[in-house]
């Protein structure tokens, strides 16, 4: 396997970083965070104008025909700049499953708007008291030719911004369907909630919400969850890389007792450990994304995704703590950029299951006799 980025992938990363460095600088982030939602609509439109929102979408709907690895490259840049845009919600949770499993009509209806930045999507994978999207308590029952949804989803990314939310729901035949729910449909209540990293999230309550018959996706919910895990890992990689870079710059320039604090052995050891952790996140993330790009079996991809998520959670938490601690008191100053990276790393650590949950899932894939 070769994880060397292609010229096209390098171009995506360079273009995204240049744009985020201009439009998501710390001063601009402070302005955005003073608003109702941590969302920069102008930056989202610029991403569309730069043809970045179509990174992993078919050319037939205006995308550039890239794949999941290209999408991961873009998400890593979102994490590097902690950019206030719903890229994970729209591109991973919403557009990706529609592009893979939607009918031609569904793709034509939803995806061109994603490419132009006019449409924001999301998906509700978590429920109160349940962490497995394959066994949702939310139900979908036939109502004539349509579907009636009842239940609740919690911490849905960008739900208050989204036009459409993908909802996994248990059907009468025992299967789990994936439904394209209009956010403004009757019977839908969206309640914004506060989150660790201040990104817009909301709980979604469904009381007889109607989904039309042709607004059901034919794809497996499990693959959406697996790909969502890898998307989070890519974001966490960018977050941790940038946090480590900020810490390295600080410990190189900050002097105490007549020399940079980065020359002290204790600081060097902490930074070296953090570097190794970042590399672990990097290689497990790109390995999982590479398996998807190669079309490997879902079980193999799912295991790799959970290994990557374990490292993104466990090691990501250590990297963020190290970056903060080597800064001393300024590390917790909310006027200093580092605090955002600590909050994002903590959010990514716990989203869709913390490290112990991933270990439990990985362990359950091995037969009892070989444990």
Overview of the structural elements:
With 371 residues, the protein is α+β, with helices and mostly antiparallel strands. The protein folds into 3 domains: 7-118, Orthogonal Bundle (Butyryl-Coa Dehydrogenase, subunit A, domain 1); 123-217, Beta Barrel (Butyryl-CoA Dehydrogenase, subunit A, domain 2), CATH 2.40.110.10; 221-370, Butyryl-CoA Dehydrogenase, subunit A, domain 3 (Up-down Bundle). It has helices at 7-23, 26-33, 41-49, 68-81, 87-101, 104-116, 221-253, 265-293, 298-325, 338-350, 355-363, and strands spanning 121-123, 139-143, 146-157, 164-171, 176-182, 188-193, 201-211, 216-217, 255-256, 259-260. A hairpin with a 2-residue loop joins strand 9 and strand 10. The model has no long low-confidence stretch (mean pLDDT 94).
Question: In short, what is this structure?
Answer:
This protein is an alpha+beta fold and 371 residues long. The chain is built from eleven helices and ten strands.
The portion of residues assigned to helices is 40-55%
Number of domains: 3
* CATH homologous superfamily designation of the largest domain: Butyryl-CoA Dehydrogenase, subunit A, domain 3
Number of helices: 11
Characterize the largest beta sheet: strand count, sense, and whether it forms a barrel: 8 strands, mixed
The total beta strand count reads 10
Annotated CATH topology of the largest domain: Butyryl-CoA Dehydrogenase, subunit A, domain 3
Taken as a percent bin, the fraction of beta residues is: 15-25%
What do the pLDDT scores average to? 94
- Specify the CATH class of the largest domain: Mainly Alpha
Distance from N terminus to C terminus (CA atoms, Å) equals 28 Å
Secondary-structure element series: HHHHHHEEEEEEEEHEEHHHH
Broad shape = globular
CATH architecture field of the largest domain: Up-down Bundle
Helix/strand/pairing class, anyone?
A: alpha+beta
Low-confidence stretches: none
Provide the gyration radius in Å.
21 Å
